[in-house]
Each structure stands twice: as structure tokens, then as C-alpha cells.
């Protein structure tokens, strides 16, 4: 195994918790599990071996491989899996990220989205690679619960999923988040890249919304903005 590259067919989970989440949620994609000689043989270890044995997944003892792939000293398990794409559910609500570029933000957003009950993610290219191990780690394994799809342009997505309310989040928007009105059965919450946000063309898409804050900052971090929006749109839900 070598350090991850975007063009690789496989990715991997760094750590026991992430690897167990992978085995529990996407076992059909798992190729191999690497373990370290320092891995404690506790309940988690035996659960891992049981899952691997039942699914004919190879378990390999290799301190060298784990030390090569992980930059953390306490990483004692790595799961190698084939990349997958779970088609988004068109009859449900979506988070749409336009040109996200920060791996940590993407992972955090995936985790927040799952936490608030929205498990469909749309990513508009160019964008960060969702299978980068840094994204997987920052998602805390939530990536294995999400449906996602990449689109070349926002219009490609809009033309495919047009029977819904679109809510771009923009500093130039006139409608406050708390004053939102949902007219259709489903909605899409749209966010721009970390550095500059959505461009002005999105002012004509659906109902642009603004998250009000003091003038002491120029904008919110992307992952914070997404979490606030998720809470506001789902606060009356019974999870």
C-alpha cells in the first residue's frame, strides 16, 4: 500500500473506530484490513475478525503498512475498500456544495448532515475528493451513511432535480434564514466554496437566504453555516 492518490481505485480508513464503521456499513466494498502488532485483542478486535471471517476479508498484520499510511502513532487498524457511489435519493432533501476545496470542511459537513437527518449530498465540480482519507477521518465515519453524487455543473444538477425548492446561502440575499418558506415537498440547501461563496448568478436561483450575524466578522465558516442552516430547516423534525 502507498499513500492515497485521487486516481486510485481504493481508499482506506485510518483507525479502529473508522474501520469498524466501514465494516458495519459497507462491508461489501472492503478488500483487506491491516492491523498493528500493538492492537489490543479486546471485544472490538474479535468483532472485526468475526466480520472479516464471515465475509472472506483478508486480515494482514503489518506495522510497516500502517506506519506508512498513517501519520498518527496510535493508529492500529486500517481498512482498505473499493470506492463506491451511492445514488442520491431524488425524493428527499439535499445539501449542495459548489466547488468545496477543504477536506476537513467536507468531512465535518457530511457528519453534520447525517446528524440532522439529511443523507443526500450533491457536489459540484471542481471539488475536493470525497474519498481522501482526510475527508473520511474528519467525517468520523459518517461518509458510510451518506448518498452522494458529483455533477460537472450546477445546471446539470438543477435540470435533473428541478421539482423542489432551492435555497442558495449568500451574503447578498434579502431573505433571512428564519423567514424561509418551503413550498414544495423537498428542498436543496446550496453553499458556495470556502473562500468566496456563491457568485451572483445564484441570486436568481430559488430563494437566496442569508444567515444574519454581527458586523464584527465578514462571514461564517462554511461548516458552521451549513450546520446552522441544517438546524433551522430540521428543528421541527422528529429524528
Account of the 3D structure:
- This protein has 2 domains: 10-82, 60s Ribosomal Protein L30, Chain: A (2-Layer Sandwich), CATH 3.30.1330.30; 94-234, Alpha/beta knot (3-Layer(aba) Sandwich).
- It contains 7 helices and 11 strands.
- It has helices at 16-25, 43-54, 63-69, 103-115, 133-138, 154-160, 222-234, and strands at 10-14, 30-35, 58-61, 77-82, 94-98, 120-124, 147-151, 165-168, 175-176, 187-191, 209-210.
- The strands form 3 sheets. It has a 5-stranded parallel β-sheet with strand order 7-6-5-10-8. Strands 1-4-2-3 form a 4-stranded mixed β-sheet. A two-stranded parallel ribbon has the order 9-11.
- It starts with 9 loop residues before the first strand and ends in a 5-residue tail after the last helix.
What is the compact description of this entry?
By secondary structure, the chain is α/β, with parallel strands linked by helices. It has 7 helices and 11 strands.
Keywords:
239 residues; 60s Ribosomal Protein L30, Chain: A; 11 strands; 28% helix; Alpha/beta knot; four-stranded mixed sheet; alpha/beta; 7 helices
Amino acid at each position: 500500500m502507498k499513500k492515497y492518490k485521487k486516481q486510485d481505485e481504493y481508499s482506506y480508513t485510518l483507525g479502529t473506530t473508522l474501520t469498524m464503521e466501514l465494516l458495519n456499513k459497507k462491508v461489501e466494498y472492503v478488500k483487506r484490513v491491516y492491523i498493528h502488532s500493538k492492537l489490543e485483542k479486546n471485544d472490538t478486535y474479535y468483532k472485526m475478525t468475526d466480520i472479516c471471517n464471515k465475509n472472506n476479508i483478508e486480515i494482514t498484520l503489518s506495522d510497516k503498512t500502517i506506519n506508512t499510511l498513517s501519520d498518527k502513532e496510535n493508529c492500529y487498524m486500517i481498512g482498505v475498500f473499493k470506492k463506491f457511489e451511492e445514488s442520491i435519493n431524488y425524493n428527499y432533501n439535499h445539501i449542495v456544495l459548489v466547488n468545496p476545496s477543504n477536506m476537513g470542511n467536507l468531512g465535518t459537513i457530511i457528519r453534520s448532515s447525517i446528524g440532522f437527518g439529511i443523507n443526500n449530498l450533491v457536489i459540484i465540480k471542481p471539488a475536493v475528493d470525497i474519498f481522501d482519507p482526510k475527508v473520511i477521518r474528519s467525517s468520523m465515519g459518517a461518509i458510510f451513511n451518506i448518498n452522494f453524487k458529483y455533477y460537472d455543473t450546477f445546471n446539470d444538477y438543477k435540470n435533473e432535480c428541478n421539482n423542489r425548492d432551492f435555497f442558495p446561502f449568500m451574503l447578498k440575499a434579502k431573505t433571512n434564514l428564519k423567514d424561509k418558506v418551503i413550498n414544495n415537498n423537498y428542498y436543496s440547501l446550496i453553499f458556495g466554496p470556502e473562500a468566496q461563496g456563491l457568485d451572483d448568478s445564484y441570486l436568481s436561483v430559488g430563494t437566496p437566504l442569508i444567515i444574519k450575524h454581527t458586523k464584527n466578522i465578514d462571514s461564517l465558516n462554511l461548516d458552521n453555516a451549513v450546520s446552522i442552516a441544517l438546524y433551522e430547516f430540521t428543528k421541527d423534525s422528529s429524528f
